[in-house]
Each structure stands twice: as structure tokens, then as C-alpha cells.
Amino acid sequence: MNTRTLAYALLPLLLACGDGAVGDSEDGSGAGAASGPTTGTDGSGAGSSTGTMGTTTGSSTTTSGAGGGVSLPDSVDVALENNGASGQTRVNFAVPLPPGKLSDDSLVRVTANGQELARVTRGLARYPDQSLRSVQVQVDVDPAASATLTVGFGEASPLAALELVPVASTLVSPDGESGPLVYAVLPASWLSASRVAGPLVPEADVAGTDLDAWSTHCDYDSFDTETFLAEGADTTRAVWLYDRGTALYRGYARRGTTGPLASAYRETSMFKNRITGSGTSARNGIPQGASEDPKYQYAQNLAIHYLLTGDDSFREAAEAMALGMTELWPSPEYAGGTDSWTERNAGFALLAYTWAAMVSDDVADTLWAEADAAASAYVAIQETYPVGYDDPDARCFAHHGDAHDPEEGIPYFGCSPWMSAILADGLDAYARARGGAQGDAARLALVKLGRIIARDGLDDTGNPLYWMGVGTDQALPDDYLEHVGESAYTVALAYAHDGKTDAALGAAANALVTKFRNEGTVGQLRSFNWQCRSAVMTPTFLAP
Fold first, then answer.
1. CB neighbours of residue 406 within 10 Å
2. Chain center to CA of 170
3. Which of 156, 185, 214 is the last residue of a domain?
């Protein structure tokens, strides 16, 4: 029996364990169909500007899931920042939405200085309940005369609609690498609650607490696009590691400021513009031979960019990167030997399939099938290895050290506490989007992962290990304090998905957050990329 078959065989047993995993799905139902979401099955992936598939669901919408929910009102103020516009200018942006907020993209109004503006709107992808993930908005406005737009939901505009123009015509340069002529900046409260970049809370909500640690260590101004270019974006592959676009967009969602938005916009455009090939042959264009390395193949940043701009070329690029990953990571299974397998590659593959599937207009079924196969294989690995290890409640995705990195010379089974955060990010995104039995199995896997890291993944000082042996006393310590936040994230995920009932898990997560706040270091661009990508979601799972 191969590991994929084993995963499906184990699934009923996993779901019967009564482990208290949170049963939330993105449609807000708390369950989800076993067959998964239906995003994109209408062949469009978007609503029309005149469609009438439904109406808003009320005066506010509450997002649900581990970490709590936030109610959103029926309007949002959008700040405009000039980036090269002169006079009346077509401004393009998109407003991300939580499930259930809006189903008919014609029910959107825009005002400036109290005056109604003509606008054109277009829905961008749908949740399983067929409500919109985001709505694209275009208006003609002079940013010098109108510094703020108010976008309201639930009523049709009395004015005739404008004609939608290509997003490229609203940019400083058509390649997007200098950003739009006018930045449209949404508040962190709206961005975080919409979960357009993942489950986040605004920095302001945790200010003055230990959970504010990431606002101190994630310096988006010091590690911005100018630094990225200065450190060799055109010649050095290392500065691209860990999907900078997503890290920066998460900074924007937490801060609601132009700085991280501008860097995210520019760098995600750079990433998209360098993609080569098409279909399963699509590859990233990162230098120094990175095109055949799965840890540089990202779709998540492209999907987020699409949901914040409505630029269809980014949706297509997200699909391409995910399809390309099927060749770069063709076998998510692991047979227990020294064949290459790492949490990092596994995580980026699942993230690519999941995020691209959520926004896809024509290959969603293919990508969900890949996501299902990957998630099932990872659950099977967790339940199987190392052979003889029999703790059913605390398990990581154990693989042999030589499968992880033969040059390290690690002759025993174990896992990487910090790389596990990338896979945890993928499993959490998959669980939220997929729902049903697949989502429940992924959540249970996250609970087990957090338990073993909290119990066995730290040294005597509370610093996470570089490599954690499983079924052995052997381990490799980490000589640096640059991976504390990732372990805080995985343990916090476990605590939340276990229903916040395990006091030991909560204490372990909070202790790691405190250590990260007081001792963590972000000493280089690559370090910023990994520490400010997945782990910034930690406060979502620990905040009251």
C-alpha cells in the first residue's frame, strides 16, 4: 500500500479520534462538503459587473475559525496615495471580502467628499457558498482633490457604470514594477478580517503585548524593495526565498500602510514578469538555476495580488506556477528512505495548489485534486514514520535526515521545527478552504505537529532545535535565534485547532512568543523573509 492509499485508509480513524479539532470551513458553515469547494466551477471564476447571483447577507459579516472572528461593516474607507498621477486618473483596486459578505458585484457604491462617483465593479473568484472573495473597483478621480474613497456594499449605484479598462493602463509602467499611478490603501482592520492574505490580526490590536513582537522584528521599511534590489534580486536567488510577496502582503494586511503594499505590489510584479513557460512547464524566472527548485515556485503571492487588484494576468500566473509545481514536486509521498523530501518543498507545493485553486477560473478541479493528494500524503507520512514510533498524539512529518539534506549528515529520522511552519501554513490554508473530512484531517495533523514541537522540539534554553530527532535522543541545536517565531506559530496553530483546551500548548506557544520578542533576531533579508511570512499569523491564534 503506498502512502497516498494509506492516507485515505487512515482518514476515518483520524476523524474518529475525538481530538477536538476546529471544524471551520471558508464558507462559514463549520463543515463543508466532502467533495470540497466549488470555486470556479462555473467556468468564470468571477462575477459579472451586472450579475444578480445574490445579495449581501446583512449589515455586517463575521469571519469564523480558529482565532475568532471580526464583524465587517457595509462600507470601508480607502485612502489614496499619489504615485505619479496628474489630474483626473483611473484608479484601480479590489476590496477583499469575507465569506457571505457580497454575492452580487453590482451592489457596490463609491463616494468621495460625499459625492457619488461613477464606477465599474467586477467580482473576483467565489467562496464555496458562491459569495465573492473580492470585488474589483475602478473610478476616475483626482487624488489631489479626493484623498479618501468610501466603498459601500449592498446597494446599486444610480449612476451609469464606467467601462472597465486594463489594469496595466492604471500603472506607472505596464509591467507593474513601479506600482500603480495611485495606491488605494485599505485599513488593516478590513484586510485582516477578510483573510485575503491568511488569518491575521492588525498590529494595532496587539500593541503593547508580547504578541506585538512581529511589529518590532518585521521592519518592512528596512527590508523593502530598494534593499531587495540592492542585495541582488537580479543576480542572487537567495534573496527571493520564502515568497517575499506573501510576506510583504501580510505586512500590508497587518498595518494597512503604503510601505509594505508598495513593496508587495512591485516585487510580486517582478516575480510574475520573470515566469517562463506555460502549463506544467511554467517555471519561476529567479536567477542562479532556481527555476527547477520547488522552494522558489510560488503561487500564493500571485493569488493575493489578483484579489487586491483584479489583474487577471496574476490569476493566470498563479495557475501556471501551481501547474508547474506538479512537475517540480511530482511525488508528495515519502517511502521512508533517503529520497528527497522536506517540509519546505511540501509546504510550498500545497500552498501553490490551494491558493491557485481558490482563484482559478478554469483549472480549479485539477489543482484541488493535486492539493488533496498532497495533503493526504503528508497525513500518511505523519502517521507512519519513523516506523516503531507509537505516540498517536504528538507527531511531526518525520523523514530521514539524508532525505532532508544529505550534505548535513543526519543519520536518523526527524523533522525541522522551523521548516514545519511552511507546511503548517499550507495545511491550515488547505483546511480552511477545503472543509469537510479533508479539512478535519489537516487540522488534526496540525494539532499533533504542535504537540511534538512543544514537547521535543526545544533545547534546554527554550530555543527551537534546528533538527529534531523523532524516536531518538539525537538532535541538532540551532546556534541562532532566527527561527523562534516559526515554532511559536506551529504550537499556536495546534492550540487554536485543538479548541484552546490544552493549557500546556497555550503556555508553550506564549513562552515562544515571549522568547521571540525578547531574544529573536532578524539580521538579513532572507531572515526577514522567513520570519515575517508564516509566523506573523501567530497572534491570530493566541489573541483573546
1. 12
2. 26
3. 185
Residue 494 lies in a domain: yes
Cis peptide before 386 (omega within 30 of 0): yes
Do 180 and 196 belong together in one domain?
no
Residue 148 lies inside a defined structural domain of this protein: yes
In the chain, the largest separation of any two C-alpha atoms, in whole Å, equals 71
User: What pLDDT digit, counting tens, does each position of 452-482 carry?
Assistant: 999 999 999 999 999 999 999 999 999 999 9
Q: Is 50 inside any structural domain?
A: no
Looking at this protein, which amino acid is placed at residue 269?
A: S
Is 90 exceeded by the pLDDT of residue 150?
Answer: yes
Helix, strand or coil, per DSSP, at residue 396? coil
Query: CA 521, 525, 526, 530 torsion: positive or negative?
Result: positive
Residue 89's φ and ψ, nearest 5 degrees, are -140, 140
Contact 494, 425 (CB under 8 A): no
| pTM for this entry | 0.90
SS (H, E, C) 345-362: HHHHHHHHHHHHHHHCCC
- Structural domain containing residue 345: 3-39+187-542
DSSP for 128-145, written as a single string: TTS-EEEEEEEEEE-TTT
Distance CA 493, CA 260 (A): 25
